[in-house]
Amino acid sequence: MSYPKKISRETVLETALAFIESQGLAELSMRTLAGSLGVTPNALYRYFPSKAELEWAMADEGCKLLLAALEDAAKGLAPPDAMRAVARAYIRFARSYPQLYAIKMKYNSGDQAKSGSHDDIWGFVIQLVSSLPTPWDPKDLAMSLWAFLHGMVELDRANLLEGQQPEAAIEVGLDVMLAGLMATMTPAT
User: Fold this and answer.
1) Is residue 189 in some structural domain?
2) Contacts of 123 (CB under 8 A, 6+ apart)
3) Is the Cβ–Cβ distance between 121 and 63 less than 8 Å?
4) Which of 67, 87, 150, 151 is the most buried (most CB within 10 A)?
5) d(CA 13, CA 158)
6) Contact 129/82 with Cβ under 8 angstroms?
7) Do 18 and 111 belong together in one domain?
8) Which of 105, 113, 112, 144 shows the shortest CA–CA distance to 128?
9) How many domains does the chain have?
10) Residue 137 lies in a domain
């Protein structure tokens, strides 16, 4: 008598993440994922009741991975340098994991968010920009940084950077943003 292959929620999620990066999100189905794991599709429903639940779990994991990359990039740096390092880490993440980035954006925005992982990233960025003595509201500053970075990611994905690497344009944008921030910083008294 043969015994069913043992899988876990973590194994299913890890396999799904690898699958979407190699094959694309559009190709993911519970049947193809089950085939990759050597189990029947019904075995997956024990951990994820639907494909949408699996996608949401992948988005949540993407947020956690992105937050870890951002925190690691900023560790030990002064706020302006940390902001630059975080921006670079954001772009690297989006380029290294394009499918995971896309699903993260799909499921962790606005009323779609079902977990705190998106809020954790937002909280980290708010804390980072709050450490800069500027006249702007930290939420507005964080939103401006995110809009800039996400815009660069989308321009890169659409091949609209006219042969430039996004890192070059990011550096120019960061130089301009940081110069503006430094010019408005109130001197310490």
Assistant:
1) no
2) none
3) yes
4) 87
5) 28
6) no
7) no
8) 144
9) 2
10) yes
What separation, in Å, do the N-terminal and C-terminal C-alpha atoms of the chain show? 78
Cα 113 versus chain centre, distance: 13
List the pLDDT tens digit at each of the 189 positions of the chain.
344 568 899 999 999 999 999 999 999 999 999 999 999 999 999 999 999 999 999 999 999 999 999 999 999 999 889 999 999 999 999 999 999 999 998 886 555 545 678 889 999 999 999 988 888 899 999 999 999 999 999 998 888 888 777 788 888 888 888 788 777 765 554
Contacts of 43 (CB under 8 A, 6+ apart): 4, 5, 7, 34, 37
The CATH code of the domain that includes 91 is 1.10.357.10
Task: Tell me, yes or no, whether 79 and 163 share the same domain.
Answer: yes
